[in-house]
């Protein structure tokens, strides 16, 4: 192993090794995030600036979340033969992705006008509550949260550029990171542009997923970790082949939960008319009476629980089974990649656990 890269001498070995400590990786990521945000708060105080922004961000970052993207950075590193004791620079890159995700979520909640995230008020709601005596508290909360999200994205860059990577690692990772951010924003734009009951275009729905979720959540984090370990072309190809179908399956599962989940959030996607594969299949296969009901209900901002139940009844008949089969098919593709990949066995086991659990819609982190 070289001192500067932390790479093992055997890359892609299938030798038996200890299980990957996913909880330990998450703890390391959280430690870096906590220290970084505390340092930002201290820096603001020294300059005489209010630290409420860092307090709000810190509360949001540590209010939950599976740390999926940071964990996949570490698994990409390990898949490429990186040292099993994942070096601090790699963990810091992983933590930078969590800050990026924080910024994306802050803006996403504004776009969706969401009141809650992870069973707590969204950032713009937290800000508006802090300034509730203002006559424009809600509008102020939205505006302030836009700025706050922008600031967190800048902090994400700062964390990445201070990770003490080698010049070669920096040159390899930055383009992947930039692609990831471009893809998620482009995916969000497509999501907005196609909202509404415009037709049964399943391929358009899947295109949105590829940018908004597959690239952002799975492919780019794995590629970044692998790039830090100077992965072979074969390793890179296998990681992409695993990430592509799994990312689609993950989003399809989320789409089902967005309609069939418990609570008020199960109305949001229907009220917005999000262009999901579930909705596209329903429009494509509904009979005239079912189609008329969908056009009446989906996209209606006043949709109530009764109307949502009617939508679910139609989905059960014409669409839900097809989406579930798509999830299953893509899960099988991801598993097939792992069958033939030359990743270390412990990494294969960890990636199988990710694939199993994200497609079941349960908390997978152990």
From TrEMBL:
Its cofactor is Mg(2+). It holds the Pfam family polyprenyl_synt. One of its GO terms (biological process) is isoprenoid biosynthetic process. It comes from the Bacteria. Keywords: Magnesium, Metal-binding, Transferase. One of its GO terms (molecular function) is metal ion binding. The keyword Magnesium applies. CDD domains: Trans_IPPS_HT (cd00685). The keyword Transmembrane helix does not apply. Pathway: Isoprenoid biosynthesis. PANTHER family: GERANYLGERANYL PYROPHOSPHATE SYNTHASE, SHORT CHAIN ISOPRENYL DIPHOSPHATE SYNTHASE. Belongs to the FPP/GGPP synthase family. This is Polyprenyl synthetase family protein. It comes from Nocardia terpenica.
